[in-house]
Automatic annotation (TrEMBL):
Protein keywords: Methyltransferase, S-adenosyl-L-methionine, Transferase
Lineage: Bacteria, Bacillati, Actinomycetota, Actinomycetes, Mycobacteriales
UniProt keyword S-adenosyl-L-methionine, yes or no: yes
Stored Gene3D superfamilies: Vaccinia Virus protein VP39 (3.40.50.150)
Protein name: Class I SAM-dependent methyltransferase
Amino acid sequence: MDQSEQIAAEQATRWNGPSGRAWIENQDLLDRLYRPVEDLLVGYVTDVSGSRVLDVGCGTGSTTLAVSRAATGTAVGVDISEPMIAVARARAAAEGVSADFVAADVQTHQFSDAPFDTVISRFGVMFFSDPVAAFRNLHQACAMSAHLRMIVWRAPGASDIMVAAERATASLLPDLPPRPPSVPTAPGQFAFADPELVTPILEAGGWRDITVDPLDVELSLPTDDMLRYITTFGRVGVQLPLLDETTRARVLDQVSKALTAFADGPDARYPAACWLVSAQA
């Protein structure tokens, strides 16, 4: 097994295991938090009149379902996590929405139906072991005039709510692991944070007219829900289960105090630093 295959196997284990379960357990919270990002992508699909849309890294299907409700045509969601795809299918059935979902690795899956005219992603493309292979495969699954629009994370700045939580708890968590490098060969939240690395990947995959534009999206949740988000999905949250009860309580107290800097009435609100990546096939 070469390095790329090993990374792919690790990602499959992660998203079919603990990360997938955490996402499912907090589905409603994450859908509410990322609704502004979803709205941007749905607006784009309707602007270009996408009739066959592929949502990459669809998770539990919120954006795919939103596209299916808003646009005429077909919306397909694909994700490597079988448990999350199962939830997405159940949601579609419960809502009576005609979206399709595929549990597959985008790097290798052969999309056999009619070609897609629009590809979108909400934070779903940063976990490939071989991103060039993934975008080449997506290109092959698309019509010649297809559009690509995806939103990925920029490197977090001082105003990022996760950074604030990490700083507030630094004395209590001296062994907090360093952030992984912002390079596509290290799959993770910020793998596409360097725009100078994103364009060559898409070009090698066959895409053209590539633009990478900064996008600040205001995200908010009720303060208690934001605390749950930070202490479940952030680097601080990863450490919490490893702490004794007293230290855990002190960490939660410090994060709660840090959230006061983001208070907007009953909510915690902050501008999330993203890239809006656009291309054509």
